[in-house]
Amino acid sequence: MLKTVRTFAVPAAIAAAVVVLTSSVSARAAITVKLATFAPANSAWHKALLDMGDAWSKVTEGRVTLRVYPGGTLGTEASTVKMMSPAVGELQAALLLPPGLARIDDAVDVFGMPFFLENDDEMRAVFTAMRPTMTQRIEKNGYKVLNWGNGGWVQLFSKKEIRTLADLKAVKLYTTEGDDKSVQWYKTNGFQPIPLSFNDMVGGLKRGMIDAAPTPAYGASMLQIFRDAPFLLDVKLAPLLGATVMTTDAWNKIDAADRPKILAEANTLETRFMSEAPKLDATAVGTMQQRGLKVTTLTPAANAEFRKTAEALVASMRGTMVPADVFDAALNARNAYRKTKGGK
């Protein structure tokens, strides 16, 4: 009888150990990713992130869940990046715009250079050429790039009509708080930048702290910016390209078998961002015009003169705001694309 008990006791002990070990591995594999974003609550961008989170939970059977903090509720992008640092570790991910991504690697400022690109086709050509380099640079600094995204074209909303660069230089212009290089660049080139946090932009327009705010049309509609800045200059300043990044530490905690699933759903979100942005902006402009927005469209000659003058401003970013080699690579990609269209 004793022998029988011992015979069954050993397998039972092994089974118990397996259960404990399996439970431990399962517990380690489960992760809640806390993600911060400036995307306004209930905006198309916010909803897309929530959809991605639902997909993550489903494809990983609950091993990876996503908690989204929208609308800049956790502070500036600079503070968001700080909260993702190993020293703090309060966040694991963020959907960052160029000012935030530049906190990780300033080469990303190449995507936000005003007046550098003119249309969606140029944007796609330069982005495709620069994407591998930008991804690699970010990932060298302790982050996994899950996807890139397009928030639409930044355009200028102002309290009074603006038709020329001289008009633009005469107004108090919103710039991102903490982006000291950008503020200095504006000042050096004769603009009047007023650095404010993103959450103070609307209030700054209401109180007269700023006269103009650069933002995509959809964002202006969501935040009701057009009510205090009812003039829109129909000139594309720059595409608002961002990226969703996760700390390498958090990424490594995700089970290796789940990582391709996470990236696949992130890629679905990227496709959605890239395709929806132009439609969102176009619809937003039409809606705002019905509510009093006045759109200033430059003549072809005026637009050409505007861009010719702006080209010199772009050149001043080489080696100051954007590393020289990155600037040159983007310029070559843009010029190569223009040559295919018969340009210089």
Helicity range of the residues? 40-55%
Report the order of strands and helices. HEHEHEHHEHEHEHEHEHHEHH
The N- to C-terminal Cα distance equals 94 Å
* Major pleated sheet: 7 strands, mixed
Seen as an oligomer or otherwise, the chain set is single chain
Please indicate the percent range of residues in DSSP E strands (runs of 2 or more).
15-25%
Overall, the morphology is globular
Which ranges are low-confidence, i.e. pLDDT below 50, for 5 or more consecutive residues? 1-28
Number of helices: 13
Mean pLDDT: 88
Radius of gyration: 24 Å
Number of domains: 1
Structural class: alpha/beta
What is the level 1 CATH name? Alpha Beta
The CATH topology is: D-Maltodextrin-Binding Protein, domain 2
Description:
- The protein has helices at about 1-30, 45-60, 75-85, 100, 120-140, 165-170, 180-190, 200-205, 215-220, 250-255, 260-290, 300-315, 325-340; strands at about 30-35, 65-70, 95, 145-160, 170-175, 190-195, 210-215, 230-245, 295.
- With about 350 residues, the protein is α/β, with parallel strands linked by helices.
- Strands 1, 2, 3, 4, 7, 8 and 9 form a seven-stranded mixed β-sheet that branches.
- Helix 5 (about 120-140) runs antiparallel to helix 13 (about 325-340).
- The longest helix has about 30 residues, at about 260-290.
- The N and C termini lie far apart (about 95 Å).
- The relative contact order is 0.15.
